[in-house]
Amino acid sequence: MMRLELVSFPVRDARFGPRLRFADEVLEIDRAGLLDLVGRQADFFRSVQVDIARPGERTRIIHVIDAIEPRCKVAPAGAPTFPGFLGPPEVTGTGRTHRLEGFAVLTTGNIPGAEGSQGLKEAIVDMAGPGAEYTPVGRLTNVVLRFEVAEGIPVPEAVQAIRLAGLRAATWLAEATRDLAPARVESFELGPADPALPRVVYIQPMMREGDIHTTFIYGLPVESLPLVLHPNEVLDGAIVSADYWIACHRIPTYLYQNEPVVRALYRRHGHDLNFVAVIACRCLIVAEAEKRRQAAQVAKVARMLAAQGAIITMSNGGHAYADQMLICQAVEQAGIRTVLGVDEYSDTDGGDVPLVIYVPEARAIVSCGNQEARVDLPAMERVLGGDRFVTTGNSYEEAFRRHPAEPFTIGIRQIYAATAQVGFGRLTAREF
Q: I need a surface site. Which of 21, 219, 356, 424 has the fewest CB within 10 A?
C-alpha cells in the first residue's frame, strides 16, 4: 500500500533577504545563493536574472518555459525530489513531501535558434487584470528565473539546462521548510473501497513531439506503450513537463504536481467510485499504426485492471486529438464508459466546429474552453522574462509586434496553460 503525506506551508508573500528562511507565511530568499545555484551551468548561460512576481501586481511575464511548485522530499531519507532528474529514477509517491503552497518557480528564457517551426512558442502570464484569471500561476506568488542562453548551444541542450536549473531552484526553496511544523498535512492512499463501487481509471496521454517538446516520466520521455502509475507518483514528482508548444495547451510541472483529475478522483475514492490507477501514454504520435496500437494496448490494460469507467484527458492539440479519440473508441468498445477532457477550436465567436476529430463513441465530453476566444489585456508596469515577444510561429498575432508592456487584444491560446485539458480552471462551454 502506497501512502503519501503532502505537507503544506502556505506562502503569503516572498521577499529577498540575507538568507533562505520561511516564517509567518513569508519566504525570505537569498538572492545571491539562488543565482549561484541556478547559474552553475555557466557554459550554457550568458546571464541569469531572478525576480519576484506577486498576484495583483501590474506585471507581465513572457517567454514562460515551465512552472514548478517548490517541493522537498523529507521521507524516506535520501529519496530524490524529482527522481530521474535530481536523483536516481526510484519509485516515488510514498513517505512525506514538503510543499510551498501558493508559490511557484517560473522558468523563462531567450534561447538563440529556438524560433524555428519546432522551437519554443510564446507564453504569457499576467499577474493582474483579466489575463491573470486564465492561467493557474496568475494567482500564485512566483519566483521568475530569466535565462539568457549563450550562442551556439543546441536548443535541446539549452532547455535541458534550464529544466535542471528550475528543478534545483524549486527543491532548494522548499528546503526552507524541512525542520518546520506543518500548517496542513494531506494524506493520499488508495484504501479499500466497497466492491460494488464502479472501478475508474484515469487515462492520461502526455505530449511528445520532436527533439524539444516532450513529457518526462522518471527522467525519460513518455512512450506510446501504456504505463500504469499509482496516482501518488503523479502527485509526487514523477512527471516533469517539457512542452514548449502552443501556450494554452501546456500542462506545466506545477499542474502534474497538483493534478486536478487525480485530486478529484481521490476525493471521491471510497464514496461513489473506486479509483484504481493512472494509465500514462503518449499523444502526438506520428504514425497511424502506432496510434492504433497504443489505443488497443491502453484498452487492454484498462480491461486487465477491471475498469468500468475511464476519464481520458490529453495534452497539446492538433492530431493529439486523434490519439485521444482512438483511445476513447477502443476503451468504449471494450465495454468501459468514458468521459473526455478537451479544449476547442471554435473560432473567436464559438461558432466553428470545435473538435479536430470525433468518434461516435465519444458521448461524454467536458470542454476546458475555446482557445480561439480573445481577451483584452491591459497595459502593465513591469515585464519579466524578456524584452520583446517571440513572433516566429505567431505571425498572425498582431499584438506580438507591440511592446509587451502595452495593452493589446490576444487569443487565449497565447496565455500559459489557459485551456489545459486536465481541467484546472473555470473555462468551459455553455449551451444557450
A: 21
